[in-house]
Design goal:
Blueprint lengths: L1 H13 L24 E4 L1 H10 L3 H4 L2 H15 L6 H22 L5 E4 L6 H9 L4 E7 L4 E5 L12 E2 L4 E4 L4 E5 L24 E10 L2 E7 L4 E2 L5 E2 L1 H9 L4 E7 L6 E7 L24 E3 L4 E4 L9 H16 L8 E6 L18 H7 L1 H7 L8
Parallel strand pairs: 1-2, 2-3, 13-16, 15-16
Antiparallel strand pairs: 3-4, 4-5, 6-7, 7-8, 8-9, 10-11, 12-13, 14-15
Helix pairs in contact: 4-5
Length: 385
């Protein structure tokens, strides 16, 4: 399978294909200017960075255009409404974002494929309304890349589409995604016995991911070892809730907690740029690591650990806005999956620690770093419903 992949890569280059590797942290104006992009393959973090570029002064080229681009992006990130006075500005916004994306990609024929985790609903709809629909896929290294892929016309939100040719998909009794076919690898390098643990008696590869099969294809819920049961025995896939929370512009990272607990809570890292209107002292240069007392509880169902980007007198307003986001998210979730308390931290991952391969916080590191805050979340009566 590796040989086939390498041959396909070299064949594309020999036929004139040009390739470029990048990360969301290095994506800036000029990064994609070398040639027109015909295919962009990346994780949701890459496409979030691309959307952020539409508001960059280097792309907008003037202060007025920059402000217009920010307005357009915010319009498209809002939930769709049917009223005419909502549709008209949304149509204008779509045109503005479409123009900026064409400038970034160098044309209008760019195809976008999102791998790894599915994109948030807001991100997916924003690209779609701007004329650049995201094609979602699913696969692993052991399956030679994609096993499932949506059509270019898109599919149900969050799903990875139907199996590609050469991939047979089924779910185990526990919901684990299983793959069989020529796309599946033959073994691990210099570790032949290891394959016996991941291939069942029927030849299906155990992906370690849990999902469900819907009309729109495969919906990936979470890694199998991340799913837990609450103290009342209810199974919870935290990634599904975390993605729903992170689809809000105020939330950068969310880590849902609750194994063996009576209810779910969450640690939140915020997108500070979306709270600038609440900051009275925008020059605040707090250093939470130098403070002994860095936590403030509020009447909004949560607490705040000292934020380096916000003066303490701004925290209650920040809490109130976050509370509204959580209330809105809880209204979409089953009762057993609703968040009952939250804690806002300056950074979910400690300094010097890298995030996971898909840019997500590593759960074991988060739990160890914030164990005292987590215990504190369950030491008080929850106020969220």
């Amino acid at each position: 399978n590796t040989i086939w992949g390498v041959n396909a890569l070299w064949l594309g280059i020999l036929l004139g294909q040009k390739m470029k590797l990048m990360s969301s942290s290095t994506l800036e104006p000029g990064t994609l200017d070398d040639w027109p992009i015909t295919l962009l393959l990346g994780t949701p973090q890459i496409f979030e960075a691309v959307m952020d570029l539409t508001c960059h002064s280097g792309i907008a080229r003037s202060l007025v255009a920059e402000k217009l681009s920010k307005w357009a992006k915010e319009q498209l990130s809002e939930r769709k409404k049917s009223a005419l006075f909502h549709r008209v500005p949304r149509g204008v916004a779509a045109g503005v974002v479409r123009r900026q994306l064409k400038r970034i990609f160098g044309g209008k024929n760019t195809r976008l494929v999102c791998a790894g985790l599915p994109p948030g609903e807001d991100l997916e709809s924003t690209f779609s309304e701007a004329g650049f629909p995201l094609q979602n896929g699913y696969g692993l290294t052991e399956t030679s890349g994609f096993t499932n892929l949506n059509s270019w016309r898109g599919g149900s939100h969050g799903t990875a589409g139907e199996p590609i040719e050469g991939a047979e998909i089924k779910l185990s009794p526990g919901g684990e995604i299983m793959v069989r076919g020529p796309v599946v690898f033959n073994g691990y390098w210099q570790n032949d016995p290891a394959i016996e643990d991941v291939i069942d008696e029927e030849g299906f590869f155990k992906t370690g991911d849990v999902g469900i099969l819907e009309d729109g294809g495969l919906l990936v819920l979470d890694r199998k070892h991340h799913i837990f049961e609450t103290g009342k025995g209810h199974p919870v896939a935290p990634l599904t809730i975390e993605r729903e929370l992170e689809s809000n512009k105020e939330i950068r990272h969310a880590v849902v907690l609750g194994p063996g607990r009576p209810y779910l809570t969450v640690l939140l890292e915020l997108e500070k740029n979306n709270f600038q209107d609440l900051l009275r002292d925008k020059k605040w240069k707090g250093k939470p690591e130098n403070k002994k007392s860095t936590s403030r509880k509020g009447s909004n169902g949560g607490s705040v650990q000292s934020l380096s980007w916000a003066a303490p007198h701004s925290w209650p307003k920040i809490q109130k806005r976050v509370r509204r986001v959580l209330d809105n998210t809880n209204s979409k979730l089953p009762k057993v999956e609703r968040i009952r308390a939250f804690h806002i931290v300056d950074s979910i991952m400690p300094r010097g620690k890298e995030a996971g391969a898909l840019g997500r916080p590593k759960r074991d590191i988060v739990l160890n770093t914030h164990r005292k805050l987590i215990e504190d979340l369950y030491a008080h009566k929850p106020t969220l419903r």
